Amino acid sequence: MTAYVDRPEVFGADEQTDVELDLLRWVGFARLVLQEERVAPEAEMSLIFVDRPTITDLNERFLGGRGPTDVLAFPIDDDVVASGREPDLGGRGPGAPGDPTDPPIVVGDVIVCPEVAQRQSSQRSTDVADELALLVVHGVLHLLNYDHATERDAAAMQAREQELIARFHDREQGSTR
User: Fold this and answer.
1) Residue 28 located in a structural domain
2) Closest to 54 in 3D by CA, of 68, 71, 73, 75
3) Domain range for residue 163?
4) In sequence order, what are the beta bridge partners of 150?
5) How does pLDDT run across 26-50, given as a tens digit for each residue?
6) Does residue 109 contact residue 45 with C-beta atoms inside 8 Å?
7) At a CB cut-off of 8 Å and minimum separation 6, what does 1 contact?
8) Looking at residue 71, which CATH number applies to its domain?
């Protein structure tokens, strides 16, 4: 029997050596995004940092893109339960514990390329950590059906990204006081 977890689980892997990063920091941020989006506590996702050849291969193979990209999101379960967000869809609602024998909801995988993030941050004259934060939140929000296909959707997604990044920075600053 699996123990009940009271928050979404994020599995992290750093499979690249180009850019040094704090894996636990980014896993914590991805978990914060899931919690703030009220994803069911029994949900799981993966956050994987890869090198340029790997993200290029994934981009070309699965999205028909050309060359490397910064972040990819691969949703898995179409029916991500967001507690209380859409109660008419049969969710248990906020605060309702899940049955410890229920299988987890697999939200999906977010793949980030720190080397591309580093290049982009130098082009924008920003810190690589800020670029990584943007890519992590962007990827997780894509798993949760956010999109930027229209100007309106893009504006909503960008606003939510900035809110979540600010909340992450506030939480980090609070933990160092």
Assistant:
1) yes
2) 68
3) 9-175
4) none
5) 999 999 999 999 999 989 999 999 9
6) yes
7) 100, 101
8) 3.40.390.30
DSSP line for 51-103 = -HHHHHHHHHHHH---S--SEEEEE--S---BTTTSGGGT---TTPPPPTTSP
Residue 3 lies in a domain: no
Rounded Cα distance between 162 and 137, Å, is 9
Token representation of residue 19: 């850019």
How does pLDDT run across 134-157, given as a tens digit for each residue?
999 999 999 999 999 999 999 999
Q: Name which of 31, 55, 167 is nearest 118 in CA terms.
A: 55
pTM for the structure as a whole: 0.84
Which tokens go with 171?
Answer: 């939480």
Q: Return d(Cα 79, Cα 91) in angstroms, integer.
A: 10
